[in-house]
Amino acid sequence: MNVLTPPSINYVTGKINAGNLVEKVTLLSSLDGIFADKAAYASLPEDRVIYSVEMLPAESAEGELNFGVSHIEAGSVGDEFFMTRGHFHERIEQAEYYFGSAGEGLLILQTQTGAVTIEKVVPGSIHHIGGSIAHRLVNTGNERLSALAVWPSIAGHNYDGLKVQGFNVRVMKDEGGFIITECF
């Protein structure tokens, strides 16, 4: 009988070791309208990598799960930290788990009615993202923020649900680290 070697994860770096990895890179150019400081946004190279996602391939079917890692680079657009676009799930009732792996940052959680909760993301932290909750990762540190994720493969991503209103808070640089500002 053969013993298979499954994919593995480096918990220190968040890097998945697998031969058939799916990878997606998000450049600054695809985040137009996300950051508040338009002049600072325009001054940065369009091909600057803001974040990337790597995941194991999965069948999109009821009962199947996705496993992936989001890596948000350290940096800022003006005084606003690099972050993911953020999204609801297409299947709005679907939940997700994040697990902090490397770096430090924040997880912004926002209900459909706009109520916001913020959780600190650090190596070893566990975050339950309930259904009907938009979520965004923000890197508030000086090194890459990596968070492992597990979610139903049928959940999908709905980025349009936040295009009009967006998230109700922004995370800005401050002398002591960061400050959270409301933007209703």
Listing every helix as H and every strand as E from the N terminus to the C terminus, the arrangement reads EEEHEEEEEEEEEEEE
CATH class: Mainly Beta
Total number of distinct structural domains? 1
What is the average per-residue confidence, as pLDDT, rounded to a whole number? Answer: 94
CATH superfamily: Jelly Rolls
The N- and C-terminal alpha carbons lie at a distance of 61 Å
The biggest sheet amounts to:
6 strands, antiparallel
CATH architecture: Sandwich
**Which runs of at least 5 residues are low in confidence (pLDDT < 50)?**
none
Structural class from helices and strands? mainly beta
Query: Number of DSSP helices?
Result: 1
Strand content: 35-45%
The overall strand count is: 15
CATH topology: Jelly Rolls
Rg of Cα set: 16 Å
Strands ordered across the widest β-sheet: 3-4-5-13-8-11
What is the topology?
Elements: E1 8-10, E2 15-17, E3 22-27, H1 38-43, E4 49-55, E5 65-72, E6 76-77, E7 80-81, E8 96-102, E9 105-111, E10 116-121, E11 126-129, E12 133-139, E13 145-152, E14 169-174, E15 177-182
Antiparallel strand pairs: 1-2, 3-4, 4-5, 5-13, 6-7, 8-11, 8-13, 9-10, 9-12, 14-15
